[in-house]
Amino acid sequence: MTTIAEELDALCHDAGFVDRSDRALVTVSGPDALSFLQSILSQDLAPLAPGDSAHTLLLTPQGKLDADIRLVRAADDEIWLDAEPGAGEHLAASLNRFRIRVKADVDDRSDAFGFVSVRGPRVGELEPGAREIDGTRIMPAPAGFDVVGPLDAVAAVMDALRAGGVRECRADAYEALRILQGVPRQGVDLDDKTIPQEAFLERDAVSFTKGCFLGQELVCRIDSRGHVNRFLRGLEVAGTSGARPPRGAEILSDGKAVGSVTSVSPVDDAPWRALGYVRREVEPPADVVLRWDGGEAPARVTATPATTAS
Length: 310
Prior knowledge:
The chain is α+β, with helices and mostly antiparallel strands. The protein has two domains: 178 residues, Gyrase A, domain 2, CATH 3.30.1360; 107 residues, Elongation Factor Tu (Ef-tu), domain 3. It contains seven helices and 16 strands. Strand 3 and strand 4 form a beta hairpin.
């Protein structure tokens, strides 16, 4: 059996796929589906043609994060919203609160849909049959793509990938890749107190020109004349000996607490990779110390990449 480190290597340097069918899937369908979502979500959806996808956010009226979403326009009048595992019921309920005199139905279809992520520099060499299965939709992603659709159709995609020699990888390998790429995850790095700019979500999930959306006032005010007090950063933790730094470990700069760790890679590598929030005054690259009950380790704060879609 391959190790998680070997699977991560395939996702980074060859080609691999991960079954992520535990993710939530909410459908919005009907003649007003697009206009309804355009009025409340942070991204400009008007240019999307059937088959197109986008990263977007559902914010609270106060500008805090409600849901981090990958959206695909599956048809003219049907839109699929991909979200974190277990988030389907909450997302559907949040959308329905704003569905007033709208000709659109919102349904949690998580149990009926599958999701597979394909990553690596060789994915462009895959035969079309390994990804283009009737009923599925493809969403571009950093260094690869995602396929979403009914369970049986996604299962056929995974069978085609296996037949094509693409390595099947486990969830831990994808988690390690996510942290390496600096992609935040809701429920881990993001919560209902997160302001989009703290995790750089505005880079590819917010339109500042589309007009009104939920939470727009705070997000636009920060963009035009304000700032946030912390940022989500990468962390390179020196060495692999001793205990693994835990989620929640304190980040110290010159002996002063400046943040905390939110994610730690499950792969034992040198250096360990992690994500955490640090005060805005700590500009990367910066040397810090991680401290937790029973241990500490030196680390370096690094900038996060330019994409935030998971």
